[in-house]
Structures are given as C-alpha cells and as structure tokens.
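Note to self: keep these together.
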Amino acid sequence: MNPLVWLILAIIVALILAIIVATYNRFIVYRGRIDNAWAQVQVQLKRRWDLIPNLVETVKGYAAHESGTLEAVTAARGAAVSATTPASSAQAEAGLSAALRQLLAVAESYPDLKANQNFLSLQGDLRDTEDKISYARQFFNDTVMNYNIAIARFPGVIIANLFNFKARESFEAPTDEQDAPKVSFETAPPEAE
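Structure:
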C-alpha cells in the first residue's frame, strides 16, 4: 500500500479518536456541572429547611391552637429532607410549599404575629431563600437539558451509548401543584333545590 494511503488512514483514525475523546470529556464535564448544580439546589433547600423550625416556633407562640397546620409543616419538612432524587425532591418540596402557604395564611389571622420582628425577619429570609431556590433549580434544569441534548445528538448519541451515559431527570414541579390553590369560604356545599 502506498504510504500516502496509510497517512490518510492514520489521520482519519486520529480524528475519530479525537472526536470520541472530546465528546466523552464533554459528557464528563456536563455530569460534573449537573452534580454541582444539584448540590447548589440542596444548599438552598437546606437553608429553607433550617428556617422552617424557627418559623414554626414563632407561629406556635402566637397560634398554639393551630397545631394541625404546624404539624403539617413539620411533616412536609421531614419528607423534603428525606427526598433523594430530583423527582422525589420536587414532589416533597411542592408539599412543603403548600404547607408553608397554609402556615403563612394562618399568620395573617394574628396581627400581633404579623408585627413580630422575629417573624418578619424569618419571613423575609424565607422569601429570599425561595428566590435563591428558584434560581438554583433553573440553573440545574438548564444544565440537565444541555447534557440531555448533547447525549441525544449525533455523534454524541453513539459515544453516550458506548460509554453508558444516561439522560438525567430535571427538577420539575408536579403538574397538580402548578395550579393556583382554590380558596373557598363555604362551610358546606349549597343545598340542591
């Protein structure tokens, strides 16, 4: 065989290997970014979880007979802390958000509580944390999306299958929790005539 043919074949093989190595390394970087982004979500969620007991204790001092609401918040916090995957965490966080909305609605009934500096400070910290959680979730979801697209496009799909890179799940809110809550002041359904 002609040496020029060997040289061309060597260049083609080198290019294919370079593409494989570059794509593999890009997937490794994406995985690292996803893990880091999830860690940032967890940091913000932990900050939120740490605020909740103080908020519950503050409300408890003013609204002791609202124990059902306080217990619901505590139980929802426990479920959120024990969630491990983005899907289970999203589900648990949706429940916790609903319980916190209920707790803050209860607080509206107590003017002394609404004026309490500790409560106002905790409420401000919680609002700030919610904003940070929202940003961290968005960053995580964007990173997961970029990775999932990269492993689905050619030639990435071949390398992803070859080295067992799997799609990652986003942090999606359950669809039933995305709707605004329904408020009703009726104590009993209206009677049919």
